[in-house]
Amino acid sequence: MPDPSPEPHSDPGATSSPSRSKTNPATQEIDVLIRARYPIIYVSTWEEERVEQSLRQIANARKKHLYTWTITQGLIKVGSEPRPGKNASNNTMDPLVALDQVIQHVEPSIYLFKDFHRFTCDERCNLTVIRKLRDVAYQIRDSYKSIIITSPLVKIAPELSKDITLVEFGLPDTRDFGKLLDRIVDEVKDNPKVKIDLNPVAREQLLQAARGLTLKEAENVFAKTLVTDNQLTADDIDIVFSEKRQIIKKDGLLEYCDTVEDISMVAGLDNLKTWLNKRSVAFTDKAKQFGLMPPRGVLLLGVQGCGKSLCAKAAASLWHVPLLRFDLGRMFSSLVGSSEENVRRAIQVAESVSPAILWIDEIDKAFAGATSSSGSDGGTSSRVFGSLLTWLSEKKSSVFVIATANDISQLPPELLRKGRLDEIFFVDLPDHSERKEIFAIHLRKRSRDPAKFDLSRLSDLTAGFNGAEIEEAIISAMFDEFSGGISMDTKLLENSVRETVPLSKTMSEELSRLREWSQGRARPASKTAAIDEQSLMRRKIEL
């Protein structure tokens, strides 16, 4: 039985991790496990440098030696220069020899084995290493020695599951990025060619944008901003996002959407825009200190072509966070179990670059067959949907979900309950004033002066039109203008409008059913109540 006495060489009054108030929770947990003499600790992280730095602090506080092992250099005592000749003679690059050295050492020590996961996975070639690890775990449990394994991937053979303790070493927080930023600013502040313009608000925006990166990635991207434009300001947030775009591209399961749209390009929908504006500071440290949790997400339900997808893009611009498109069709694989694993991987990637917006477009079509999944696809859709629902209920990360849907009848009721999403907004057809605004937005977007058009007249003619149909009418008129060599005016737009049959006319029954369902079940996205403007489309007869 292990000796429960305090570790030798440690501070007599030390009862907690070194500098507890200054260390992150993972470092504190590792320190506690080392003091409790857990023999093997598996640290899952991409940042072995941060782990090594933490272990240096722990080793210094406990007056222990620190050794590091890599397959290229073998076992080396930290603080001493690598000596390839000696390493080659001892052959500590061989994991079995290195583990023998751990047993032979008598002084209190911490051993950091980097990228050792290749030898801990359940493969036949690793049988001797796995057995040796179990032997070492038994032999050092009564000593003041601990083995730390670092790896970006968790691969633990079943035989080791009772001997290894797993620790998740989280990504840096804004405090860590703040220290990094201060160091970089201090290094370049005397350079006359470099401009540093970071007021408290701009500084927080930049630090929030860096969340989800490793310290090395953040250091690279801060250096990139200085090299690109010789300055460091809040405008450099887009360069920080470019680093996150690389992370998304490497995985391939999510699509990083470049957002050029802002909230001013969304006509009407005042209730929704107000709701989004109030939560624009939800991911800041100030909101966290106030006691606010990050918002979970919204479901945008409504008529096709009325701006639901545009709202997702505008929200990303408003909040200055990346927009990640979650294509559920890409998740499904022919291999059993692969679809669920793809969903879990996609969620992990989204959380790794948080704060971010995860956009699930047309979720009703993706899960239309979830209820009958067992008979149609062997239950794959049902399991994928279950994985997503579980994550929505339990997620703690700053990933805001925007799901869009056109047909509520295709959605399982489990998705609609409170706790998974914050709100359900119903996006109806634009009213008269909103249609005027849509015409003005799309005309300005195409370098046309809205003041030269009778927007009120055009709005009257487009009763029952959605935003996409109005945009297409303008594009059609522009083709007439280009091919006919004439200037576009209100009359040309009127002709284009009259040639368009709106979706609300061809699918009037579905629209009525959707509006009826939304009454009392969903919050209207616009301040004005939904109006059945089909009556405005009746033929006008002069008597």
Protein traits:
543 residues; alpha/beta; Rossmann fold; 4 domains; seven-stranded mixed β-sheet; six-stranded mixed β-sheet; 23 helices; elongated; disordered N terminus; disordered C terminus
CATH topology tier name of the largest domain: Rossmann fold
Mean pLDDT: 81
Shape: elongated
**CATH architecture classification name of the largest domain:** 3-Layer(aba) Sandwich
CA-based gyration radius? 30 Å
Helix/strand/pairing class, anyone?
alpha/beta
Number of domains: 4
Write down the CATH class of the largest domain.
Answer: Alpha Beta
Span from first to last CA?
A: 104 Å
Strand content: 5-15%
Describe the largest sheet: 7 strands, mixed
How many strand units? 15
The tally of helices reads: 23
Structure write-up:
There is one protein chain. The protein has 543 residues and is α/β, with parallel strands linked by helices. The chain folds into 4 domains: 20-168, Rossmann fold; 174-251; 257-427, P-loop containing nucleotide triphosphate hydrolases (Rossmann fold), CATH 3.40.50.300; 432-512 and 531-537, Helicase, Ruva Protein, domain 3 (Orthogonal Bundle), CATH 1.10.8. Helices cover 45% and strands 13% of the residues. The protein has 23 helices and 15 strands. It has helices spanning 25-35, 48-62, 84-90, 95-104, 127-139, 174-188, 200-210, 215-229, 237-251, 270-278, 285-290, 308-319, 328-331, 338-352, 363-366, 373-376, 380-394, 432-445, 455-461, 467-484, 490-498, 503-506, 508-518; strands at 40-44, 65-70, 74-77, 109-114, 145-151, 164-168, 195-197, 231-233, 255-257, 297-302, 323-325, 356-360, 399-405, 423-427, 523-524. It has a 7-stranded mixed sheet, sandwiched between helices. Strands 3-2-4-5-1-6 form a 6-stranded mixed sheet, sandwiched between helices. Helix 19 packs parallel to helix 21 (490-498) and helix 20 crosses helix 21 (490-498). The termini are far apart.
